Amino acid sequence: MKDTEMFKPFEKKIWLSSPTMHGEELKYITEAYETNWMSTVGENIDEVERMIAKKIGVEYAVALSAGTASIHLAVKLAGVKPGDKVFCSDMTFDATVNPVVYEGGVPVFIDTEYDTWNMDPVALEKAFELYPDVKVVVIAHLYGTPGKIDEIKAICDKHGALLIEDATESLGASYKGIQTGSFGKIGCLSCNGNKIITGSSGGFLLTNDSWAADKVRKWSTQAKENAPWYQHAEIGYNYRMSNLIAGVIRGQIPYLDEHIAQKKAIYERYKKGLEDLPVHMNPYDVENSMPNFWLSCLIVNSDAMCKQVREECDVSYVSEAGKSCPTEILETLLKYNVEGRPIWKPMHMQPIYRNNEFVTRQGNARGTSITSLETEANEECGLQLDVGRDIFHRGLCLPSDNKMTQEQQDKIIGIVRGCFI
Ligand SMILES: Cc1ncc(COP(=O)(O)O)c(C=O)c1O
Questions:
Q1: Which helix (H) or strand (E) holds 262?
Q2: What percent of the chain is predicted at pLDDT more than 90?
Q3: Ligand 1: which of 190, 194, 197, 242 to mutate, judged by most atoms within 8 Å of the beta carbon?
């Protein structure tokens, strides 16, 4: 018999991931105010560009208004033109792929692998067999876990494709000691309100190419030409970071490693506290990668899933002794004033992208993919294993706020455990 009312609800909400301020942010904002550098120029911007470039190990970090702006200008730099197909991560937030469409490109979604929950290199190779002319690949490192970046990069090099790295969730994460965001020709970061460090908003475009950095600075400030008047020879954008936002980020950067250590401790505590349940934590390549542990997630073993049905925007489940599902766990957490979240719904399942191509290890899978190939008959019918759909069905994001105390986390672990009784 489940006992999902074993504790009292938390008085103050426990968030999925909320900003953690330290006080130095105010100093830099105040300096900007008192010296009247209240626009998109100023010392804070110069400093954060220098600090981020150094941290990531690239020549240039251009400060922009958002991660989405940086992905948009990355896609533009890559030369994507109307009608061009672009291979994109499938299980990600839609801001990874929308900028492709801003430029008239057509995202082709590449399925996910189970080892890191990122783009599957085998499916990517398959996609190049189907569409050898594709010249741009956009990958995300989901929840701060580096993907199989060596393999992805080698495939891109083999096919002469340019790699854009959406490292918006993975600031500070590394693979073989190298920071995510520095593997691709262009990298993108975000400092929005729920990221590991935040400016309330903001993003960076990362590159080693001085021409590209200058171009992005120009495009992001309305593409003004060097003339006595407003002269425009190409389309520009209002995408530059404000000196105030940069002040907040400047105050946060020294705390990045501390935040990562706190998030790692949260991940480890969940792992230990849930180890005897039929669930697994979001996995990573323990030998080669160091995630930033931005969000701790779990996936319920297939045989421990109670029935759960998701419609377009609605969901229902049937509670069952000894089993559970993401919906039951999320609803139970909410009863206790705790915020969790479903896994990001894969792009090929989204109404706006449902008609785009979707490539799995087996080939083009649009309209033929399912969560498990339990029977041979499924395979014989031409159905394909859809890893992203499966992780979305069985997985969820656990509260990962770095201000959550150990005591609060122990209670949350108890609540999750109660769902499996
Ligand atoms: C994977 C991914 N890509 C892109 C973005 C966009 O970043 P921003 O909110 O700074 O525009 C986000 C965050 O929202 C994200 O999680």
A1: helix 256-273
A2: 93
A3: 190
Please state, in angstroms and rounded to a whole number, the distance separating the CA atoms of residues 194 and 188: 16
State the average pLDDT for the chain. Answer: 95
Question: Which tokens belong to 96?
Answer: 């990874």
Side-chain half-sphere CA neighbours of 310 within 13 A: 17
Does 375 have pLDDT greater than 60?
A: no
Query: Is there an atom of ligand 1 within 6 Å of 68 CB?
Result: yes
Given the CA of residue 169, which atom of ligand 1 is nearest to it? 16
pLDDT tens, residue by residue, 81-140: 999 999 999 999 999 999 999 999 999 999 999 999 999 999 999 999 999 999 999 999
Rounded (10°) angle between helices 67-77 and 210-219: 120
**Residue 183, in any domain of the structure:** yes
Q: How far away, in angstroms, is 378 Cα from ligand 1 center?
A: 36
Binding site membership of 199 for ligand 1 (Cβ less than 6 Å): no
C-beta separation of 2 from 329 below 8 A: no
The one-letter code for the residue type at 247 is G
The model's pLDDT over 307-355, given as tens digits with 9 standing for 90+, comes to 999 999 999 999 999 999 999 999 999 999 999 999 999 999 999 999 9
Among residues 217, 233, 255, the one where a domain terminates is: 255
- Is the same domain home to 274 and 224? no
The domain total for the chain is 2
Task: Answer yes or no: do 206 and 349 share one domain.
Answer: no
- pLDDT, tens digit (0-9, with 9 covering 90-100), for 26-57: 999 999 999 999 999 999 999 999 999 999 99
Q: Are residues 268 and 138 in the same domain?
A: no
Cα(289)–Cα(208) distance, rounded to whole angstroms? Answer: 23
Mutate to test the pocket of ligand 1, among 93, 97, 118, 297 (most ligand atoms within 8 A of CB): 93
CA 187 to CA 164: how far, in whole Å?
Answer: 6
The answer to whether residue 195 sits within a structural domain is yes
Q: 219 in a domain, yes or no?
A: yes
pLDDT of 6? 75
Q: Which tokens sit at 318?
A: 């049937």
Total Cβ atoms within 10 A of residue 357:
19
Asked if 250 and 271 sit in the same domain, the reply is no
